[in-house]
Design brief:
Helices cover 54% and strands 7% of the residues. Helix 2 packs across helix 4 (63-71). The chain contains 5 helices and 2 strands; from the N terminus they run αααααββ. The chain has a single domain, classed as Orthogonal Bundle (434 Repressor (Amino-terminal Domain)).
């Protein structure tokens, strides 16, 4: 006899993901990560009241690159540009492997220089 109380009810999201092929799941995850990054950048820019042009000038990248990051556009930009923008917004990048956290150690915090 099965106990219906212990039966896990799937969320709409769980059903959505389970219906995807492995390729579709990978594509979804990549898009979701791009979305999270663009939301992070957008929120920091709004919080600091900094425009695309002001941030691009501050960190030394083109306004197009900042706009692409902010909008989550499917445009290539390099990690150097990404790190410059995140640093300009006051972020530090932490990497974790096997429980050991390493900072990328930005030495200059341009956020305070706005």
């Amino acid at each position: 006899m099965t106990n219906s109380i212990n039966k896990k009810i799937k969320t709409t999201f769980e059903e959505f993901i389970e219906a995807k092929t492995p390729e579709q799941k990978k594509e979804y995850e990549e898009g979701y990560h791009d979305f999270l990054l663009s939301e992070l950048i957008l929120a920091a820019m709004e919080e600091d009241d900094v425009s695309v042009r002001k941030l691009s000038k501050l960190v030394g990248v083109s306004p197009t690159i900042v706009q692409d990051m902010k909008s989550g556009a499917k445009v290539s930009f390099n990690t150097k540009s990404l790190f410059k923008v995140l640093q300009g917004l006051g972020y530090n990048i932490l990497l974790e492997r096997n429980g050991i956290v390493t900072s990328l150690g930005f030495t200059q915090n341009t956020k305070n220089n706005k």
